[in-house]
Amino acid sequence: MEKTKRLKATIGLPQAVALYIGAVLGSGVLLVPGLAAEIAGPASLLAWGLMTLLVLPMALSMGLLAAKFPSAGGVSHFVSRAFGDRAGTMVGWFFLMSVPIGAPIAALTGAGYLTAAMGWGEGARIIIAILMLLAGLLTNLLGMKVAGGVQVAVVAAIIAVLMLAIAGAAPNIEARHFTPFLPHGWVSVGQAAAILFWCFIGWEAVSHLSEEFVDPERDAVKGVMIAAVIVGILYFLTALAAVGTHTYGSAGVSEASLALVIEGILGKSGVYVAGFTGVFICTATIIAYVGATSRLAYALASKGDAPKPLAILSEKHGTPLGGLAFLALCFVVVLTLYTTDTVSLSTLIQFPNATFILTYLGGCAAGIRLLKGNRWGVGLSWLSFVLTALIFPFVGWAVLYPLVIMLALWLFGNKKKTSR
């Protein structure tokens, strides 16, 4: 391939760590600690500890695959190598059609935190969401050196705010808030763990950027390990602050536990800090996923498995212009459907569930086959596959979305054969 047709390798270890953290540390850190505590009480800390340990296999299996097979195709590329091009293309399209819905959801969620804190209306929420999506598109158009640098700054700001909240809450943590430790029984710990699963997904996204790692063999695994430890510690300590100060348990309190902890430290201005933190967290997620999806679009189109325009690269920046344009168009469609009340946010959230889980299952299955020379790699992949498979039956009607994608892919394949 010509030099101008290759993605530029500009991602070092700091950027890799920031991209992993940004992809995983989502808006759940603002919502879930209080909700999990409401379900299981202080014993929710057991669920956080358990999920922190169980997520390591998922993170490491993706890191090992990215190190061994760096490609813009990410999980799609891994599945192609393990099970053939047809399976890889299908998994690629599952991910490709998840983010056009998932990114606007993240933008609306982050914008919602800020507008609620400021007392602004729905119009302001839409404008802020659009600006967040534009930030994700623009930083990725300028290249991963810029996107990675922005991500480092954003993630550093997020960590600083979370550590402020945790440190500020420490003097107010009281032993009496940990008794009774198991108020709702052991089943409640499992129920809490189920909702925590969604706080720990995102490791697959950065695998699509592995082709742009300066040293993928070193930085993919090291980056994911560092990020997993940081994310696990932040989640657990945030949950500890919510439980130890008993900032949960009543209407409107559990959902805003972190915001209330910050408000207790900084006063009224803490609400504003929490609002901007929500925007930063969701913007970091958008940057990571827009980068991953635009690279995947480029990889699929380069192989003839997606429309050719998606393979267009920016001559100036060497970035996937076609993939970014595709995402921009999808964002316009999704936001139009939302702003016209055609589809509610709660309905939109359901669509990517099945496709994200199927993408994970494909990646874990590929790891079982491709990491055979690595004893740990196979075991980690098996554990990740089983854990993810246990979640899939709960997606409900959202399973229809991947079926529609499969039908569209079949029609595209037939059209491609006819044109030959």
Supply database-style keywords:
globular, 17 helices, 420 residues, single chain, Amino acid/polyamine transporter I, transmembrane, transmembrane transporter activity, APC_superfamily, mainly alpha
How would you summarize the topology of this molecule?
Blueprint: H1 13-24, H2 28-40, H3 44-68, H4 75-83, H5 85-96, H6 99-118, H7 122-141, H8 144-169, H9 186-196, H10 203-207, H11 216-244, H12 257-266, H13 269-302, H14 321-339, H15 345-370, H16 375-391, H17 400-419
Helix pairs in contact: 1-8, 1-11, 1-13, 2-9, 2-11, 3-9, 3-11, 3-15, 3-16, 4-5, 4-15, 5-13, 5-15, 6-7, 6-13, 6-14, 6-15, 7-8, 7-13, 7-14, 8-11, 8-12, 8-13, 12-13, 13-14, 15-16
SSE sequence, one letter per element:
HHHHHHHHHHHHHHHHH
- Backbone structural class: mainly alpha
The CATH superfamily is known as Amino acid/polyamine transporter I
Rounded mean pLDDT is 85
Q: How far apart, in Å, are the first and last alpha carbons?
A: 23 Å
**What fraction of residues sit in β-strands?**
under 5%
Give a short account of the largest sheet: none
Shape: globular
Number of strands: 0
CATH topology: Amino acid/polyamine transporter I
CATH class: Mainly Alpha
Unreliable stretches (pLDDT < 50, length at least 5) are none
Radius of gyration: 21 Å
Helix content: over 70%
Number of alpha- plus pi-helical segments: 17
